[in-house]
Structures are given as structure tokens and as C-alpha cells.
Amino acid sequence: MRRDRMNNKKRKLAIAISLSLLSHAAAVIADDSVDFNTDFLDVKDRKNISVGQFSMSGYVIPGQYWLAVKINGTTLPDEYFIDFIVAKNKPTGSASVPCLTRELVDQFGLKPDVVAGLRWQDNPVCMVPGQLDGVMVKGNLNQSTLEVSIPQAFLEYTDQDWDPPARWDTGINGGILDYHIDGQFRHDQQDGAQMLDLTGNGVAGLNLDAWRMRADWQLDYSHDDRDSDESAAGQQLEWTGSRYYAYRPIPLLRSKLTLGEDYLQSDVFDSFSFIGASLVSDDTMLPPNLQGYAPEIVGVAHSNAKVTITQLGRILYQTQVPAGPFRLQDLSQSVSGELDVKVEEQNGDVQQFTVNTASVPFLTRPGLVRYKLALGRPQMWEHKLNGPMFASAEASWGVSNGWSLYGGLIGDEHYRAVALGVGRDLSILGALSADVTRANADVDGKGTFRGNSWRLSYSKRFDEYHSNITFAGYRFSDRNYMSMSDYLDAPEYAGDRQEDQYYRDGYNYRNKEMYTITFNQNIPDYGLSFYLNYSRRTYWNQSDENNYSLSLAKTLEIGRFKNISMSLTGYRNQSSEFSDDGVYISFSMPIGDNDNVSYNSTLGKNSAQRLGYYGRINAHSNYQINAGVDSGDHISADGYYSQEGAIGKSDLTISYLDGDYASAGFSLEGGATLTAKGGALHPVSSRGSSRLLLDTSGVPDVAMGEWGSATRSNRFGKAVIADMGMYTRRSVGLDLRQLPDKAEASRSVVQATLTEGAIGYREFDVITGERVLAVLRLVNGEFPPFGAEVLNARRKMLGVLADDGNVFLAGVKAGERVLVRQEGHIFCQATLPAVLPAQELTQTLLLPCAEVNENDIKE
């Protein structure tokens, strides 16, 4: 045994010395082709050496190689088998050239007219080299990369985080199920009543090629033991499919095609639900700096609360928020029209207000046309049809560098509306747009209503002053002006829908004027920030509505305490049915790396003072505890806990008010993705969004994502990163510091540019297994050549042969097959024994290596 160990040490030393001499010999060769002086190597059989891959600077021996591809420094998401072939009309042994196939060239992002003019050669089918001036292609085997340099004049528009359509990934087939569930339990201390409310919403879907089939669902359950009628509505769980639809991208048109139930997407007309088809220019297909605007929701919660955002009864967004001001900024920019916001406090109070999502001034890049087309029948809640066929069309044309024209038409057999507007880029003064809509509506029994609606919109970012007017707008509508949604909701038109109170209410609110403004101002030198969100709506036949939130924040340092923050928020939510005015004051001071204490006071309808403590347990969980007193000298306490786990996010809340109530709540948010290549449970915040299925080659518990991420591969070696965005290049890497024992990664970063709703698939090169010292010997008793590469079945290199067939193999498994590659071609193959040595590197394995035809090898 001792002699074996001594021999092992000698073998390892021989391998190290041989490889060191080999690298030294390679270092002294000239820039061009020269021969190795193999006498410099301490090798017994100098004729049996495979060092051709080291004999010429930049030279690649003809053969097939698995390489990453870089285009002007940007690595393509997939790796490719690249054939290096002998150039035409050149003798064997001269420079080889890579075969650029049609599939690979399609990923370059060349302009369509450039692609149309390319010439191709046969056997194999490759792009003829040298036909594009300035294009350089070089194989870099040391980094397993094919480097391609292309002049920008030949390429479509690209930037750091955006790829041209040629590189967009429609993903693989599979199914998704995303969910958000909220539960609230309340105990009334005065009469002992107990109330339970359970709500949820989500998206179920199926991906087939570029098509996305989706079903938006909602559930609702409520129980109040004060209700003696056990059969009353709400006593059982109710599940509703709120919307069924399918969509797919049309990259050639930079648009999205949707079939089924949808909401009218319009920049000039009001939104309503319909069933039919739409074709809409998709701004998300544009580079990020050319994309549109997404609305944000602001308000103040007096206690732990659930915020629900709906449109025409369909839940768009739902979340739990702690007491205090909230600002929700992650709504989709595709949302348009009016949104209903409902804030349900754990003390039983409810706030309700409306937010208008009118977009910033409608400007289009010079020479481009953006459009939105729709055809179908309007519908009510629960999929009931609501009127005859209608059609709508609108477009915006970038006339010049500063001017845009836009307008549209919408109507059916009884309703017609036309809009026309102009947008102007005022350069340093911002952007402005103005439009007018003329509508004619024939209402049974009431005659024809004709009216106009004028609108003015403005936006400006003042970078030098650290301020931003996100949106400012004004709209005025005549008394007899009816939008199509007004027309559809009119009781006279409703006919047999008279019993539907929701739709009758819509007609009662006849819009007159609307003012909207959102403004941000930062003063970094003084640690000050200012935020204003204001909207006012007036009606011809209803009371006015006023909503605003005004905040002033200050950060400062006191002695050793840094990042102390103070804020003052004033708010008003006022309508004909609800009014809430108040002022919210807060103070927060860090007392450690992850903890802080706070004080806040609410003055208004629900006056209260509270002391709070916030703590962060780790990178994935935090909590908040508050205690205080209200205007009636009632003691209150509440707590909030949030955790982001490997399969989803969970929140827990508790609240207590002396002499009134005690309540608890929870929320669960996550998703499931399943494909033929595997699946996983995972977190998700934007339901139905694009996601990336990651494969760690069957290795479980591999950490991935940004540092500190909770995402790890499951027991099957699969993980899903959701919310990948769409049409934007995203990278995901492994956390190499947390690799499992005996695991190594040769490809630790992947990237993808996914289309909307896609399930992308990427595989990391993770190898896990034992380390062994082996001797490979051919059937005839000879050894494979010195310097040959030893690969696994997936063509990943495990080691390099030294003298007498010695090789050190890392990351191998019992019974695994290994291949020996000599100068680009498979020379022989061997199989590891069913049982490997118990202790690595204490024994040398003798592996017979049988010669094999490369064409007969299957991965």
C-alpha cells in the first residue's frame, strides 16, 4: 500500500511537470506556425504526442468544437457546435475557418437587406467568408469562444441591455400556475363575532410555441357568524375565471396579437371589456429608453391593510401593506384607463378611490408608426355580451424630430367617435400633447347625444434640478359627450341589464373636468425630497372628487447615528360617498446594521400615535412591531412579518385595538412552472410573466441568482427565476461560493432575452462527482497520445493526458463513460467502474480505451 502511494505521488508529480513543460514549450513558439521541440518534453514515446492544438498562434485544427459565441463583446445566450473546416483552395494543414451556419448568422442581428445579400456555400452550408468588409471571426479555444466582430453599419439597433429581434427567445412549451392568496380573520371584542375573509387571484396558462394561452382566476370566501342564514351567499368558496385569452408576439410588426377576452388598450379612448381580437404595437419591444409609462398608486393605510386594484371588477393587483404611506410602482405599463383602488384596514375601515392611468404625452420616434386595432363585442362581468360588434383603430405617426400626429376611430351601429391630436417635443421645456374627441351616440328613447372632449398633457424631467413631472394633464368634456363606456352603461341602452347595478352606476357619473399631476423633487445636498400626486374630477351630475398625497422627507445625521429620516405626508381622498383627510408624521433612526426604531403620528379621521421597531432577520425575512394609542385613548398593537422563500413569498400580520377588535392576516404569493424538461415551484410577483427554467445538470441545492437570493435548484436539479422581464437581456449566475461539495461549474452564467410570457430554458455546466487518477490504455497495449483531451459524454473536458496514459479526472461518477479527443476528433472511449475507490487519489484506475467511430457515439 505504501508503495502504491509513493507511485501515485510520482505519477501526480510527473503529470504536473509534463503539463508545465508543455505550457513552457507553447510559450516559446513564434507568433505564426512553428513546430514544437518535443525533445524538450520528458516523454518516453515522443512519436505518440498530440500537441497540434498548441502549434500555431490562433490556429484551430479542423474539427467540431462546442463554443460560446461573442458578437462585438456580447455573448449569445446559447453555445453552438462550430465546425472549423479547411479553407477553399488551400492545402491541408493551412489555416481553418469556422463554418457560420444560417442558424448562427440569424443570431448576429444583421439588417434585413444585409441578410438578403449574403452568399452561401454547400457541403456544409456555410456563409461565404470575406463578403462583408470589416467582419472578423476568430476561434479562441483557450476560452472556448468564437469571437465575431461586425461593423455597426451592418447591425440592427442594439444597446447594453437590449437585443434585436433575431435574438429573442420564445421559450419552450409548458404550463404555469401563479397565485396570490390573502386571508383575514377578525374577532369583535364587543359582541364576540368572528369574521373570516379569504380572497385570491392568479393566472393559469399554457405555452405552445409562440402562443400563450391564459386564464385569469379569482376566488372569494367570506363568513360572518352574526349571519344566521347559513345558506347566504358568501358561505362557500367561489372560484371565478375572470378572463380567458391567448396572445403571441408579432416581431416583424413590433406588435402583440390577442384573441379572446381583453380590455381595450387605447391612448385616446376609455377602456372597456370585450371579446374579440386586437393587434397592438408593443412598446416593450423597443429599447428601454424608448418605452412608455406605467401608473403608480399612492395612499396611506391607518393600520395593516390589504390593497386591491381592480378594473371593471377584475383584480389587477393585490398586496398587504403595513400601516403608513404606501406607494405601489410595479403595475404593468400595459394597464390603461381608470383603476379602482380599495384599501381594507384590519380595523374594518375601507378606503376607496379612483386613479386615472392616462399616459404621458403621445410622442413617436421620427418615421415610425404606432397603432392599436381591435374588433369584437363588448361584454360585462361574468362573460355576458353587452352590445353589437364594434371596431376601433388608432395610430401615432412621428412626423419629424419634434412633432407627432395621432388619432383614432371607434364605433358600432349606434355609436361613433373620432379623435385627433398632436404631440410636440419642446426640448428643454418638456413634452406636450393636445387632442379632441368628437362623439355621436344614439340612445333609444333619448335621441342622439353629440359632444366633444378636450385633453391637454405635459411631462418634463429636469435632471439638473433633480426633479420630474411624470404627468400633468387636464381634460374637459361637454355635458352631452359620451364615451363608449358611458354609452354601454346607459340605463336606456341597457335593456334587460336594468338589474345590473354596476353598469347602471357607470352612467350616473358624467365626467366634466379632470386635473392630474405627479411631481418629484430631490435636493441631495440637503437630504430633502418632495413628492406630489394630485387629481381632481368634477361631474355634470355628481359631487366632485379630490385625491392628493403630498410628502416631504429629510435625511440627516446626529452624532454617530446616520441615515436618520423624517417625513411629513398630507393626504385627502374625497368623493360623494367617502372622505378621509389627514396628516402622517414619521421619524426613523437606525440602531444597528439591520434594525431601526420609529415614531409616527396620524392626525385626522383616525388619529393615533405609535412607536415601532423594525428588524431584519436575514436577507430574506424581516419584521415590524408597533404599539400606540388612538384618539380615544385605546391602546393598539400590531405586527408584520415578511419572508421571501425558495418557493414563494409569505406575509403575516396581527392587529389589536383595546375594547374593539383583534385580527390576523396572511398572504401567500408564488408560482409553479412545469415543462418537458422539468419544473419547479418558485417566487413570482408579476403573475403570468416571463420566466427562466434553469438546469444544473441534476445537481440539487445549487444557489443562483443575485448574491443573497433564496433561489436554489430543487432535488431534480431545476429552478425557476420568474419576473425576467420581456425583450430585455437578463443574466443569471451561480453563487460559486455556495456550490455543494464535490461540485464544479465550468459555465456559471447564462443569459436570455425572452418574449412576453415565455418559459426560457438554460443549462449550467455543473459537474459533481469524484476525483480519480487513472491510466487509459488501448486494446493493443499502447497508450493514447500525450496531450489528448479526456471528455465526458456531454463533451466537457475532465482532464488532459500525460505520459503513459496518466490522467487526473475531476467530477466523474461511477459507471460514467469518458471520451478521448485527439486534435478535434474522438479517438477512443472508456467506462469507469461501477464502484470508485473509497478515497480519492489513493488508487490508480486502469481504464481500457476502445477505439470508436465518432459518428456512432450518442450523447
UniProtKB/TrEMBL annotation:
Domain PapC-like C-terminal positions: 776-829
Location, primary (coarse class): membrane
Entry-linked PROSITE patterns: FIMBRIAL_USHER (PS01151)
Residue ranges of the TM segments: none
Keywords (A to Z) from UniProt: Cell outer membrane, Fimbrium biogenesis, Membrane, Signal, Transmembrane, Transmembrane beta strand, Transport
Record's bilayer topology term: Multi-pass membrane protein
Cellular compartment(s): Cell outer membrane
InterPro entries (UniProt xref): Fimb_usher, Fimbrial_membr_usher_CS, FimD_plug_dom, PapC-like_C, PapC-like_C_sf, PapC_N, PapC_N_sf
Record GO terms (molecular function): fimbrial usher porin activity
A Pfam family of this chain: Usher
UniProt signal peptide: 1-30
GO cellular component term of the entry, any: cell outer membrane
Entry's family note: Belongs to the fimbrial export usher family.
Name of the featured protein: PapC/FimD family outer membrane usher protein
Organism name: Superficieibacter electus
